[in-house]
Amino acid sequence: MSLAVDISVAREAFDVHAAFEVPVGRVLGIVGPNGAGKSSVLAAIAGLVEATGTIRLGTTDLSALPAERRGIGVVFQDFLLFPHLTVRDNVAFAARVRRGGWKAAREKADPWLTRFDLAELAQRHPVALSGGQAQRVALARALAAEPAVLLLDEPMASLDVEIRDEVRADLARHLREFGGPAIVVTHDRDDAAALADEVLVLDRGAVVQRGTLDELAAAPATPWIERFAR
């Protein structure tokens, strides 16, 4: 099922308006200058900020549902792992919320720990993890909830430069395996090139261009796009 978004978000400096579609199995990158409204769009889709308009997944109007019923997995920029929970319980948390009971939730989490090479870290707490390990935990937690849509907000921003290439390649592989529509907000061209099938450019709350990086580089709509895409 494709994700179709047509929303407006009121902000103090300017309103954000975005209309776009993400086909099933595709990853859309949302890029643009700082403060353009990228994270506001992501938060509105997730139901974390108020928005007007429609957000449809297939024939289902997600905008009519509260955040916890939208079936959307979110990986935040700072990962937002629960510091008092172990890696295993962080990943199990979504299953526990949906179905109740730690025992069943932990059993459901275990295959995700294996898939993300986290089994040996299962009893650690987030303070003992590297940036790359924390990102894997956050992604495993989001996917363990079996979301229909996956949203990632600057997933590489908190990582040291030395490990970004390796973690980026790993994240790209997991996104390809996800299968549903996904959106990645990023300010980095390398991230957009590795993770997204297409990019949508926001500038001061408006969509100014969409296409592959090659298409944007060939006919940039703004000077910012020209610098970003080349």
Overview of this protein structure:
It is a single chain. The chain has 230 residues and is of the alpha/beta class. It has one domain (3-81, 148-229): Rossmann fold. Helices cover 38% and strands 23% of the residues. It contains eight helices and ten strands. It has helices at residues 38-46, 87-99, 102-115, 131-144, 161-178, 189-195, 213-218, 223-229, and strands spanning 3-9, 16-22, 27-31, 52-57, 60-61, 72-75, 149-153, 182-185, 198-203, 206-211. The strands form two sheets. A six-stranded mixed β-sheet has the order 6-7-8-3-9-10, with helices on both faces. A four-stranded antiparallel β-sheet has the order 2-1-4-5. Strand 7 (149-153), helix 5 (161-178) and strand 8 (182-185) form a beta-alpha-beta unit. Helix 2 (87-99) packs parallel to helix 4 (131-144) and helix 3 (102-115) packs across helix 4 (131-144). The chain is globular. The two termini are 33 Å apart. The model has no long low-confidence stretch (mean pLDDT 92).
Architecture blueprint of SSEs:
Elements: E1 3-9, E2 16-22, E3 27-31, H1 38-46, E4 52-57, E5 60-61, E6 72-75, H2 87-99, H3 102-115, H4 131-144, E7 149-153, H5 161-178, E8 182-185, H6 189-195, E9 198-203, E10 206-211, H7 213-218, H8 223-229
Parallel strand pairs: 3-8, 3-9, 6-7, 7-8
Antiparallel strand pairs: 1-2, 1-4, 4-5, 9-10
Helix pairs in contact: 2-3, 2-4, 3-4
